[in-house]
Write a structure and sequence with these properties.
Layout (H helix, E strand, L loop, with lengths): L1 H27 L6 H5 L1 H5 L5 H12 L3 E7 L5 E3 L32 E7 L2 H13 L11 E10 L5 E8 L2 H36 L4 H15 L2 H15 L17 H36 L2 H8 L4 H13 L7 H9 L3 H6 L5 H10 L3 H29 L8
Antiparallel strand pairs: 1-2, 1-3, 4-5
Helix pairs in contact: 1-15, 6-7, 6-9, 6-12, 6-15, 7-9, 8-9, 9-11, 12-15
């Protein structure tokens, strides 16, 4: 068992390496300007000192988005320092207007250059990012920051002291802070999903091809087929806009008059309803299929022949054995609990990790995108390993060999 776990952990490291490379390349090749330039766009246009440009270049170099280079002020050619060799050095005795690090432009031969940052290839940028990660530096978000709960004393121009909240842009501070609300939504939705879907699957299997079976199957297929944004928009339209029963967005209503905890739960009713409706269909069908397979087994016919009641046959013998394949679903539970519901949180304007990750993807916030996806990938790998181990625990027929 121990040797098997070690083998799986080593394999997981290789998988995580491949996943991180694929994600980084996909992020880098997406169309649009990177968020660093977009964020400082207005300041760059008014930057007379060049300090903002230096700040942008420093951020790009840190996260592997660019590397040092030059721009020829005569022909406009931009090239990286790494592409230069001895043939590009200024010839001895040459008369030049300005020499930068002793190089000339390889395109036109002039030596009127200035320092700039040059976009790197995704692969070069990836290994720059990976090197930072291996040193424990996951980076800081280009866009987001969270309150650390700490304060510091600052003085204004008149010397008056005041307290200022300290915020953090470190990606894991952001992830762990915003995971809380996403975890609560996903956990409650998961519990409701199992409470509703498993009994429906059992009833549907025991009454196969009956009215109940067809009714439950039709409702389950409707839930599976509805897109998240469509169902969420319908619930918002009916219960928030038309009827006014539930809040439209967010987590807190300052005019509600309810205790904060109750107000938060009231805001989460529609998002959790959306998640439950969309998820019970798959679990119900999975339970129904497993139950039908077990009900046709020889030992179930033997139990009935011995005179056991139908209720005891179903819930003591059939149901317990039908749960064994459900253990494989543990692989998806961990990432679903902590990684958030991206579309649902966006539709209902919930400030969770799912919505934050979506905004980071749209705006090219590479450090946050990479940290979020690696966090989800790690949870998936752990969930898969736990699923395999639990399968061997609940089913004596399965043996894990080294």
């Amino acid at each position: 068992m121990f040797k098997y776990i070690i083998q799986r952990i080593l394999l997981s490291i290789i998988i995580l390496f491949g996943v991180s490379l694929i994600i980084y390349v996909l992020v880098r090749i997406q169309p649009g300007e990177n968020f660093v330039r977009k964020k400082y766009g207005g300041q760059l246009q008014q930057d007379a000192t060049g300090n903002i440009e230096l700040t942008v270049e420093r951020i790009e170099l840190t996260y592997g988005l660019a590397e040092p280079g030059f721009k020829c002020l005569d022909c406009g050619h931009v090239f990286a320092t790494s592409t230069l060799d001895e043939s590009d050095l200024v010839p001895s005795g040459a008369i030049v207007r300005e020499v930068v690090d002793g190089f000339c432009c390889p395109e036109c031969g002039e030596c009127h250059l200035k320092h700039v940052s040059v976009d790197t290839s995704p692969f070069i940028g990836y290994f720059k990012w990976l090197g930072n990660v291996l040193h424990g530096d996951w980076g800081e978000s280009f866009k987001f920051s969270v309150d650390t709960g700490k304060t510091e004393v600052v003085k204004d121009a008149n010397g008056v002291e005041s307290l200022k909240k300290i915020s953090s842009s470190k990606v894991f501070d952001i992830i762990f802070t915003k995971c809380g609300v996403s975890f609560i939504i996903s956990l409650i939705a998961l519990i409701l999903e199992y409470i509703i879907a498993i009994p429906l699957g059992i009833v549907s299997a025991t009454k196969q091809y009956g009215v109940v079976d067809y009714s439950v199957t039709v409702l389950a297929m409707m839930g599976i087929s509805l897109p998240t944004f469509f169902l969420g928009a319908i619930l918002l339209r009916i219960f928030s806009i038309d009827l006014g029963w539930f809040p439209y967005a967010g987590l807190v209503d300052p005019n509600s008059g309810l205790p904060t905890f109750v107000d938060n739960l009231w805001h989460l009713v529609l998002p959790m309803t959306t998640l439950v409706i969309l998820s019970i269909g798959g679990l119900m069908r999975y339970t129904r299929t497993n139950m039908l397979e077990v009900l046709n087994a020889d030992y179930i016919r033997t139990a009935r022949a011995k005179g056991l009641s139908e209720k005891k046959v179903i819930y003591k013998h059939a149901f317990r054995n039908s749960l064994i394949p459900l253990v494989t679903m543990l692989a998806g539970v961990l990432p679903s609990l902590f990684s958030g519901a991206m579309i649902t949180e966006t539709v209902f304007s919930i400030d969770g990790i799912g919505k934050t990750a979506y905004q980071a993807v749209v705006q090219g916030d590479i450090p946050l995108i990479m940290a979020y996806n690696m966090f989800g990938s790690l949870l998936s790998v752990i969930g898969t390993l736990l699923s395999d181990l639990m399968y061997a625990v609940v089913d004596p027929r399965v043996k894990i060999t080294d």
